[in-house]
């Protein structure tokens, strides 16, 4: 950190705020417009030195230390060239003479508002600004900001032709290739590979490099190189390409640091390259106060994406003199959005389906979960009745242990799933938590971690001592999702159809009259009975 700042300061960089070598902050470097105009060579000298430094980027000398003992496929440690500690230059070119860099490649992005779907959520982005790329900047950007092709310019001589390459240095992917560019008129060049924005899905601050070569003549690419360049993920040797095509340079380079967002994570998840959605769930969960977890467990590092879906059959019911009908639907829990789900969709007879995916490169369930035993808990820490649960000892809605091969259906069920029916006006949050076990768990033993004084229908669910369980069995939290469900028409239907103080249950409900008209009479269904019988016993017990 100190060495890096001293280096930047030596070349005219003023840092006002820096949290890490490439952390957030504001600065004016030797390559910012007005400094570059006064002293271009100072900018280029600083640029060359950073580009040759093997200590500054995630794939450099610190990689061995930071990823020591990690799975080679772990998202933040996946490195297609892990055996070498690289600089920007050695990784992109193997060998290159940075002394040939004699001009500055200007790159300017225009970020516009828009929306995208990522990791189960719809995101709205309202920001609009211009990003002038500065290779000495400490700023880190997100893929969504850089999705549209920027504008390029550089100082050129009449009659010169150039080849431009945009390259993902960390993952060694080609992002764009344009040849036979007259001067700096990129639009007049021949596009071999159209622009694809940075798609780093990881938490690494990954450099994307803009590379410019000077051509000796008009370039005929040939089928060999066209085929190679069209494969974005090809392990291309840029030095070999430059030598074979008699290119000079690179005569200019620039780069931008990019860290993952849900936009890139979704694209890479769909292609099967990597699923880093757990990282964004991790950030959202960190903002919550989970007092039912031990202190050390709250230091989160989630590595598994829990895709919980609910296949809801068509249903109809009467609630407080109003008939309701809901068509069949399938929905997935969305912890990155508002998370609100109606009680009718998560009722007891709608069994949640849980699909698990590890945050690895080229996710493979058999490989990623080999030899792992898992525990699934669903907890409600918002009970208004301390007898049944509170913030530290929540109510237990579902508990499965000894899950093998990431298949929840083959685990041992300690407590069957029971759906939400919150009695109070405030919505409850229902957390689905996935833990990695260190060994087999005795289901009968773990079932004893609940309050003895509990009404019969809820035996084994009240005041679940989750903190004690996690500590005793050394459980590691690796995945999470959640939803919020409030007291709505379905919950009132559950309560009232068994004669529970109808006026109190329906007080304030829209359309309620006492008594209900005959037109709103409704025959109670067997499925509803299955869901509500336990709730009714519970409510009678607390009266």
Summary?
By secondary structure, this protein is α+β, with helices and mostly antiparallel strands.
Structure description:
Pfam families: PBP. The protein has 15 helices and 22 strands. With 543 residues, the chain is α+β, with helices and mostly antiparallel strands. Strand 14 (315-319) and strand 15 (322-326) form a beta hairpin. The chain starts with a helix and ends with a helix. The strands form 7 sheets. A 5-stranded antiparallel beta sheet has the order 10-9-8-11-12. Strands 20-19-18-21-22 form a 5-stranded antiparallel beta sheet. A 3-stranded antiparallel beta sheet has the order 6-3-7, with no helix packed on it. The model is unreliable at 1-27 and 518-543 (pLDDT under 50). It folds into 2 domains: 2-266, Phosphatidylethanolamine-binding Protein (Alpha-Beta Complex), CATH 3.90.280; 275-542, Phosphatidylethanolamine-binding Protein, CATH 3.90.280.10.
CATH topology label of the largest domain:
Phosphatidylethanolamine-binding Protein
| The CATH H-level homologous superfamily of the largest domain | PEBP-like
Q: For the record, give the distance between the C-alpha atoms at the N and C termini, rounded to a whole number.
A: 63 Å
- Poorly predicted parts: 1-27, 518-543
Assess the beta-strand content as a share of residues: 25-35%
Task: Please give the CATH architecture of the largest domain.
Answer: Alpha-Beta Complex
**Structural domains: how many:** 2
């Amino acid at each position: 950190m100190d060495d890096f700042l001293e280096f930047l300061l030596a070349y005219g960089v003023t840092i006002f705020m820096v949290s890490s070598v490439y952390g957030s902050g504001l600065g004016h470097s030797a390559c910012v417009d007005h400094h570059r105009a006064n002293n271009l060579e100072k900018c280029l000298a600083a640029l060359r030195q950073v580009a040759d430094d093997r200590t500054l980027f995630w794939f450099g000398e610190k990689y061995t230390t930071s990823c020591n003992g990690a799975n080679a496929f772990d998202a933040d440690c996946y490195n297609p060239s892990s055996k070498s500690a690289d600089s920007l230059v050695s990784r992109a070119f193997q060998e290159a003479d940075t002394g040939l860099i004699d001009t500055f490649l200007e790159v300017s992005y225009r970020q516009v508002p828009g929306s995208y779907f990522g990791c189960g959520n719809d995101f709205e982005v309202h920001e609009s600004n211009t990003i002038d790329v500065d290779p000495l900047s400490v700023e880190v950007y997100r893929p969504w900001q850089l999705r549209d092709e920027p504008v390029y310019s550089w100082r050129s001589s009449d009659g010169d032709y150039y080849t431009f390459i945009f390259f993902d240095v960390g993952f060694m992917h080609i992002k764009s290739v344009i040849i036979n560019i007259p001067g700096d008129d990129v639009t007049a060049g021949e596009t071999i590979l159209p622009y694809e924005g940075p798609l780093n899905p990881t938490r690494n601050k990954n450099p994307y490099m803009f590379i410019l070569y000077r051509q000796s003549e008009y370039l005929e690419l040939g089928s060999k190189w066209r085929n190679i360049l069209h494969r974005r993920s090809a392990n291309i040797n840029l030095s070999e390409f430059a030598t074979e095509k008699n290119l000079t340079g690179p005569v200019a380079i620039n780069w931008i640091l990019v860290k993952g967002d849900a936009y890139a994570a979704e694209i890479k998840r769909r292609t099967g390259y990597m699923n880093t959605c757990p990282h964004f769930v991790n950030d959202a969960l960190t903002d919550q106060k989970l007092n039912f977890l031990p202190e050390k467990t709250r230091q989160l590092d989630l590595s598994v994406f829990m895709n919980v879906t609910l296949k809801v059959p068509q249903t109809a019911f009467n609630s407080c003199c109003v008939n309701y009908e809901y068509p069949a639907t399938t929905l997935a829990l969305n912890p990155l959005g508002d998370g609100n789900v109606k009680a009718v969709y998560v009722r007891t007879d709608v069994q949640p389906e849980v699909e698990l995916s590890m945050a690895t490169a080229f996710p493979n369930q058999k490989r990623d979960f080999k030899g792992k035993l898992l525990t699934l808990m669903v907890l409600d820490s918002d009970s208004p009745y301390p007898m049944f649960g509170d913030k530290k000892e929540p109510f237990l809605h579902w508990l499965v242990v000894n899950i093998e091969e990431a298949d929840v259906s083959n685990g041992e069920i300690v407590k069957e799933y029971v759906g939400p029916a919150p009695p109070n006006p405030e919505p409850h949050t229902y957390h689905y938590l996935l833990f990695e076990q260190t060994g087999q768990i005795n289901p009968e033993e773990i079932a004893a971690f609940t309050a003895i004084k509990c009404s019969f229908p809820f035996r084994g669910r009240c005041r679940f001592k989750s903190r004690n369980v996690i500590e005793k069995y050394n459980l590691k939290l690796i995945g999470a999702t959640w939803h919020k469900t409030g007291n709505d028409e379905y919950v009132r239907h559950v309560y009232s159809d068994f004669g529970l103080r109808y006026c109190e249950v329906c007080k304030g409900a829209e359309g309620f009259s006492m008594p209900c008209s005959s037109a709103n009479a409704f025959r109670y269904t067997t499925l509803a009975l299955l869901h509500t019988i336990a709730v009714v016993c519970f409510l009678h017990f607390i009266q």
